[in-house]
Amino acid sequence: MSKRLLVIDDEQAIQELIHLYLSPLEVEVYPALSGEEGVALYARLTKEENTPHLVILNLKLPSMDGVEVARRIMQMDPDAVIYGFTASFHTWRAEQMKKAGVKEVIPRTVGFPAFRGIVKNILEGRPLSPDLF
Amino acid sequence: MDLHEVILDNLDEVVHVVDRDMTVLFVNRAIEKLSRGRLKRDEVVGKNLYQVFPFLRETGADEEYKKVFSTGKPLKTEEWTEYYGETIYTVTTKIPIQTETGRTDRVITILRDVTDLKTTEESLQEVADKYSTIVELAQEGICIDDTNERMVFVNEAFATMLGYETKEELLGKTMFDFVDEEGREILESEVNSRRRDTPSRYELTVYTRQGELKYLLVSAVPLVINGTFAGSVSVNLDITEWKRAERELERALEVERQFKAQTAHYFFNPLCIAKGYLELVMNEVEEHQRRNLKVIHQAVERIEKVVENVVTKGEIHE
User: Fold this and answer.
1) What value of ipTM does the predicted structure carry?
2) Superfamily of domain A3-132
3) Which of its termini does chain B have fewer beta carbons within 10 Å around, N or C?
């Protein structure tokens, strides 16, 4: 059974790269280009009993940022598995994301091959190396 | 020894009697205590008072005796005497004893040694003077309020702090005269806690006489006299400049935070995209092209490292 992945990121190129790099993992990637769209998509998939196994969430998004998106998804589903993937990984807002329920914040600088490894480990329930963050 | 002599010998005061020739006719034992044990009463009786105490002439005592003998009126004086290097303070009463013809032929002198009292008084005055100097020299505004929060004492610094030229202009005013609604609420709460005997420390925004906004750090304690709340004493520190500096620092830090966040956003995202596509393309090209792309990839990673150092450490290097 393929895993469902919700990617909430307003950068079209990032969405495309995530799709390309994760294709070997046999995952279903659901893209959302804004926070509102991401929250709505999570709700719809859950309603359809297709709750995403993992949410990849950017911090800096137009109108509703990653902190608020995480808060809303966690309210909807306290078991949601959300990981940040952002250029603003060093900021206090990234810490706010964690407080809102995000498990860890993956820096944009890790590169896509490493990102793919991280996602694979998460989906397979393996622990992540602390050196990655 | 008769009863009168017993009584006289047990007095703390020195009592002596002199005749018109200033011969000491009687002195009680207290003279031994006053002279710090240097004189025995028997060595004094029968002698001239000025022979025993030569300094009495210098202090003007001889003129006082002359006056009492001539006027027949008692005289009370306060004086100090350097006696064997020690300063002795006394209160002296000279009482004339008159004959049947009304002539004063003897004078009873009662001397009370008030040195201890005077020394304590002087120490207290010294302490009061010392603290008064400290209060006046203090950069902090010092204020004493009565039970109605009216100022009954302020120092120069406090008057200046609130825009007044003299301390007297502030007397009778209250801190409520210098605050807005928010400050009023803070003051009411703090005054109530002082009435419950609790010292308080708080920041207060005040408007000076000229309407200038100032920030004060107030440390106030209740003033309790004989177990009753009598007002408050407060030390007020003008922290307006600190507050300004604090706000400027916060603004500067916010600008820096924004700069770093924007730098990260505008650099890391395109660099991440560039690296992502480069890595994809590198797997699809010939070896010699792959080598060239690898050089580009390394260059991108170098830029990325520099940006990372800027945004995480505030340093610009690879």
Assistant:
1) 0.89
2) Response regulator (3.40.50.2300)
3) N
